[in-house]
Each structure stands twice: as C-alpha cells, then as structure tokens.
Amino acid sequence: MENKQQHKRRYISGLDGLRSLAVIGVIFYHLMPENMRGGYLGVPVFFVISGYLITDGLRQEWQINEKIQFKQFYLRRIRRLYPALVTLLIVSAAYITLFQRNLLNNLKGIVFSSLFYVNNWWQIRQGYSYFDRFGNESPFTHLWSLAVEGQNYLIWPIICFLLLKFVKNKSTIIKIIFGGTLISALMMVLLFQPGSDPTRVYYGTDTRLFSLWLGSLLAFVWPTAQLRSQIPKEAKKVLNLSGGVSLVLLALGFFFLDARYSFIYYGGFYLISLLACVMVAVTAHPGANWNRWLTNPLFTYIGKRSYSLYLYQFPVMIFYEAKVKNIADHRWLHTVIELVIIFLLSEWSYRFVEKPGREWTFKGMLRKLKETVKMRGFTAQAVKQWGILLVVLISLIGLIIAPTNTLTAEQEAFQQKIEENQKIAEETKSQTNQPNEAIDTTETSGEIPENIATLMTRYQLTEEQVRQGQQLELTAFGDSVMLGATSNLQEVFPSVVVDAVIGRQLYNSLEEIKQLKKEGLLKKNVLLGLGSNGLATEAQFDDLMTEIGDRQVYLINTRVPTQRWQNEVNALFDQMATKYENITLINWYQASDGQPDWFREDQVHPSEQGLIEYTGLIARNVLLP
After folding, report:
1. What is the DSSP string of 543-572?
2. Mean pLDDT, residues 127-145
C-alpha cells in the first residue's frame, strides 16, 4: 500500500525553484546583510514548503491505507536529513580541531544538541545571540532552524493522526490547525520585547511553528491529489496573478525587512508565511503556470541541493573569514570565492552523502566498517575509507578535548572590561557628574599638576585640552566599541554621559536618542560611535540628526575589516559629515590603519593600547588645540 501511495504523488518541480530562491536569500543575508536585509525570510519559506509536503504525504497515506506508518515516516526523515548533517558536524569538528581551536569551546554541546534536534533551545539557554556578529560567532549558528523542523517532524505525524482519526471533519481540522498557528504567532508577539535582542522569539519552536503549520493547513485546503490541470481561464489568471503579487512582496521583504524591525515580530513573519503559502499553492496547482515558470535547469540544480547549500554556507563563511582579515577591502572578490567554495562542498555533499544516504541502513554502515578494517594495500578504495576514519577520529578527539563555557584569557579580560564599563556607563546616567576632583582645574603659573601631566602623556593632549575636557558636557552614544572605551572617556571627560550597548545599530537608535533627550541626558555635544554592526541608510541617519537637532555632533567612523559593510558605512559617514554643518568626522579608520596591535583578536574591538589611541583621537577632535 505504501508503494501505491508513493506512485500516486506528483513531483512538483517548481517547488525546487522556490527552495532555490529561499536558500539564495539566506546565503546572501549571511554574506551581504547590508544588501539582502531580509534574506533570513527564506527560512519561513522553507518551513511552509516542508509543512505542506509532509502533511500532504501523511494525508494521502491515510486516505489510501487508513493509517500512518510512523516508523517508516521517521526512517525516511532520518535518511533524508541525518547523513548530510552528521557529515557536516564531523568535517567541521575535524577542521576546528586542526586549524581553528578557538572554536572548540562548547563543541560537545553544539554537536549533541544538533544531533538530537534541540540546538535552538541549547543556543537560547547559552544566551547566544543570532544577531551578535562578534560575541559568539559560530559555524553552527544556523542549525537552529533544523532543530525547529526536527521537533515538528517528531510531533506533527502524531497530531495529524489524531486529527484524522478522531476529528475527521475537514473544516474542523482546518480550524484547529489555524488556531494553532495563531497561538504560535501570539506567543511571538507576547514574548518579543522591543529594543532588546529578539533571539529568544527568533529561535523558539513555540514562536516559529506557525510557518510549518500554515504549510500543513494548506495541505488540507489544497491537497495535491485533488488539484486538476483543466480549470477555467479566469481561475488560471487569478492563480497566476496571485503568485506574481506574492512573489513580488516576498522579494521586497527579502531586500528590505530587517530582522530587528518590530513589525517582523508583530505579525510580519506570519504575513511572510502566508505569502509563502500562496506561492506554494499556485506552484503546486497544475492548472497555473507557476510550476512551469519556476522550473528551469538552474533552479532545479540549486533547489535539489538547497539542503546541502544551507548546511555548508555558514561554516564556510566563518572558517574563511577567520583566515582572511581584509574582507571589506575586496568584498566582491571574497564573496565570489566563498560562493564557489559553498557550491563545491554542497555538490560533493549532494552527490556523495545526501543521495547515497537515502538508502542508508545501520547494517550497511557496519558492513562498510568491517570491509575497511579488512582492507590491505594502498588501493584507492582503501585510502578513501581510511581517510574517512581518520577525519572521524580527529573530530572525536576535538569533542573529547573541547572545553565547556571556557573563555580564553583575552576573552575573559575583554568580558570583564565590558562588565566594568557597563556599570560605569549606568553610573554616568544615574548621577550628576562633576569635574574630576582629582584634577586641579585652576590656572597656575608653576609646574603642571601630576594628574594633568599623566593625561597629557597618555592621550597626547595639551594642558589646555585636558583642562577643557574636565569641564566639557558630552553624551557618548554608541555600540560595543564605545562601551569598551567608557572608563577611558570618563578619564578625559569626567562629566560624560555614556549610553553604549553591545550590538547597537544606527537604524534602531532613534527611540533611544529620544529617551536620552527626554531624560535631559542628551548634552550639547554628542559623540556618535555606530556602524560596527551593520549598514544604515541616509534617511535613517537624517531621522537621527533631526532628533539631535543643532547640537554639535562628533561622528566616529568604523574599522570592521572582517565585515563587508565597513566601506559603505564609512562612505555614508563621509557624506553625512559634508551634508551637516554641525558634524565633525573623527577618522578612526584612517588613524588605526596598519595598527594591528591596537585591536583584539576580532580586529574590531580596541586593545588596551587601542583604547588609549581611540580616546586620544576623540579628545583631540573634540577639544580645541
């Protein structure tokens, strides 16, 4: 009976086209987030397709057999997903063990949570952020979505069976599933906190199930077995037009809907999932043209390899960009190189892991292992099998030696520095700062006081500049780079108000500037240190400047050589400094060029020496000579 069901199902080649568009969006979101701001929306598109096909298959099996063979379902899923995933984990663990040991930390937790499809909850528990490009960069960050799908694969066949057996009525089943999608979307709305890191709702199974279940709901409304190729012309036009509108809206979302916009969590994800449902529906319908339009050799090629492409894109980026430090200076060249590596590895995975893996059995694996042990000589087959065993052995060694929640001495020092500066920054806002009493600000005709002389030497300032700094009213607003310099800034500017947050971006800073202004903490001199975490638009900068008003603004440009947006951010800042008369550009990029000792290992956050140079540069631009 199962074979009969399998023959009855129609292969919808156009869905490979949808998969190709989804995976291209995800890859370019990670490669070029400043150009493909909403590429992460490829994930809910994958979820909808998966929910639709899985549920459509389960319904057809029920209609033919009046039962669901759970064992066969789970075996098919394991054979489809596990070989490529396990291979990725083994190869990546071996690479990390040999060439990038700084990523060994928590490797055991990553591997086991991925194998058991709970990686999303593991990352949430560890406090990892999907949006922090510097704090906990990992080649396995993207595996959270496989965990959400895996958990759904575990529970959905059971739910579907219960609905089909006991509820039976199709319209009632549809209402129940629809209610489940609304509950999941409501969970996202309730758990999302504007202005805070949205990783919890971005990763959560409870807050992301609605995309999968909307696909499942579509399978009850739009079952493939009941769709007919012969339909009225007007119906065909409606289907084609609906697909065109949905595809255009999805494309706009891929380019412009940033993952930190509140709209995304207040219904945006749900809307995108509904648009994906429309695209899946018109592609699946044999009476519409979308299946034909989305079927071509390129889309078919990419779509069939979309799983391997998704698996390998993030590890390639992390491993490659860790070795190449000047990504921003040759971003198109490095983008092409990374794409080539991603596609080569994905092709290898598809041909030699994914396709053979669909016939995988535990007995077959044991048989191959025994054959390898018995091999003699240096035949090509023997070298291949022993090479595989060597890679597995190296990865196991990496797992054994991998520490848990351990920081390097430099990471620990940086974390401690950040925590200390966070306290100092809060204190600058919670009290009325006074000039540093340790500094004698009165004019004297004798020798320069020791404390003034110390600041002059440390930050390369004149005596007059040090004395000015003790009296200057200044608000410093920025990201983690500025946060790291808080104590240094307070040395030179005792009255400074520091508002700096890890991961802050310019585009979502307007409300925080408004809050500072409301509390009377936005002083007549404003120091802006933004741009390390991503690109912004001129319009977003204009909004910020409108709120700041006629205050004197000191704008620090950025050095993030490992990120593609560095040069575009700096070009924007150059343009804004020309556009606004009250902006003084502080060229940290130029001053720090060729000074690797000024930075920590990420080449972005200043070292102790770098903080002195950073603060000195700011002071020399803010204070009169």
Report:
1. HHHHHHTTSEEEEE----TTSTTHHHHHHH
2. 82
Q: Which positions ≥6 away from 568 have C-beta within 8 Å? A: 34, 535
| Residues sharing a CB contact under 8 Å with residue 159, sequence separation 6 or more, in sequence order | none
What span, in angstroms and rounded, lies between the C-alpha atoms of 475 and 473? 7
Placement of tokens 């648009």 in the chain: 275
CA distance 175 to 185: 15
How far, in Å, CA of 418 to CA of 434, rounded?
A: 23
Q: Edge-to-edge, what's the strand order for the sheet holding 475-478?
A: 497-500, 475-478, 525-529, 552-556, 583-586
Q: What is the pLDDT of residue 362?
A: 64
State whether residue 442 is helix, strand or coil.
coil
CB 242 within 8 A of CB 282: yes
Residue 312 near residue 345, CB atoms below 8 Å: yes
Residues in the chain: 625
- Portion of the chain with pLDDT greater than 90, in percent: 73
Q: Which of the 8 DSSP states describes residue 229?
A: S
Residue 337: count other Cβ atoms within 10 Å of its Cβ. 14
Element (H, E) at 478: strand 475-478
Nearest partner of 85 among 46, 142, 39, 20, judged by Cα:
142
Which residue, 548, 560, 554, is CA-closest to 528? 554
pLDDT at residue 438 in the model: 47
Closest by CA to 342, choosing from 395, 394, 303, 306, is: 306
Which secondary structure element, helix H or strand E, spans residue 611, and what is its range? helix 608-622
Helices (H) and strands (E) in the chain, counts: 30, 5
CA dist 9 and 7 (Å) reads 6
Instruction: Write out the catalytic residue numbers.
Output: 480, 602, 605
User: How confident is the model over 306-354, as pLDDT tens digits?
Assistant: 999 999 999 999 999 888 878 888 888 999 999 999 999 999 999 999 9
pLDDT digits (tens, 9 = 90+) for 247-259: 999 999 999 998 8
Sign of CA dihedral 473, 479, 483, 484: negative
478 CB burial (10 A radius; 0-12, 13-18, 19+): buried
Neighbours of 156 (CB within 10 A): 21
Cα angle 352-356-359, degrees, rounded to a multiple of 5 = 165
